[in-house]
Amino acid sequence: MKKSAVYTRTGDKGITGLVGGTRIKKSDSRIHLYGEVDELNSYIGLGISFLDKSFDKSLLQQIQSSLFDLGSNLACEKEKRSQFKLPQIKTSSIEKLESDIDQMDSQLIPLKHFILPGGSSAAAAFHVCRTVCRRIERQMVDFEEQNPGEVPENALQYMNRLSDYFFILSRYLNSSNQIEETQWIPEA
């Protein structure tokens, strides 16, 4: 019986390879960072599975593709990225997020209080995406401080805008389904 191509056994001792071939420990902060990006991508897939069939999922699928682009760049040393012609996050991707945020936000009642994450299954899933996105953003800042120039261009801005997008998307989904948001009212 032929061995599956899914497992290679090359990482069995806690070492993995970057795109450029460099071998590093799986505990390296770079591995954590692109692993978190992969986790976010999976949560987006979960959120998509909760959406109505009529919901236009094309932007969410573009986001998933952009996160694969980001992950591939993080998995490659900056000096080797051009050699592999890795796709970059474009300014137009950030602008598209901003446009969709503005469009959805214009249909929402302005917030006067913080809200608790939740509502519909889809909205709750995208609130999880928002928090994972913020975690990635924090880790990216730390990674850049430790490894100057390694965070791809536009990545921090994209992640910052993406978390805003997930927040507004969650609110929009709840509003569209007439699900009232729960305000956070601090206990006295």
UniProtKB/TrEMBL annotation:
Gene3D superfamilies: Cobalamin adenosyltransferase-like
SUPFAM superfamilies registered for this protein in UniProt: Cobalamin adenosyltransferase-like (SSF89028)
UniProt enzyme class: transferase
Gene Ontology MF terms: corrinoid adenosyltransferase activity
Residue ranges constituting the Cobalamin adenosyltransferase-like domain according to the UniProt record: 6-173
Enzyme Commission no: 2.5.1.17
Pathways per UniProt: Cofactor biosynthesis; adenosylcobalamin biosynthesis; adenosylcobalamin from cob(II)yrinate a,c-diamide: step 2/7
One Pfam match: Cob_adeno_trans
Superkingdom in the source lineage: Bacteria
Catalytic activity: 2 cob(II)yrinate a,c diamide + reduced [electron-transfer flavoprotein] + 2 ATP = 2 adenosylcob(III)yrinate a,c-diamide + 2 triphosphate + oxidized [electron-transfer flavoprotein] + 3 H(+); 2 cob(II)alamin + reduced [electron-transfer flavoprotein] + 2 ATP = 2 adenosylcob(III)alamin + 2 triphosphate + oxidized [electron-transfer flavoprotein] + 3 H(+)
Keyword annotations of the record: ATP-binding, Cobalamin biosynthesis, Nucleotide-binding, Transferase
Xref: PANTHER family: CORRINOID ADENOSYLTRANSFERASE (PTHR12213), CORRINOID ADENOSYLTRANSFERASE MMAB (PTHR12213:SF0)
Family: Belongs to the Cob(I)alamin adenosyltransferase family.
UniProt protein name: Corrinoid adenosyltransferase
Species of provenance: Bacteriovorax antarcticus
Organism placement in taxonomy: Bacteria, Pseudomonadati, Bdellovibrionota, Bacteriovoracia, Bacteriovoracales
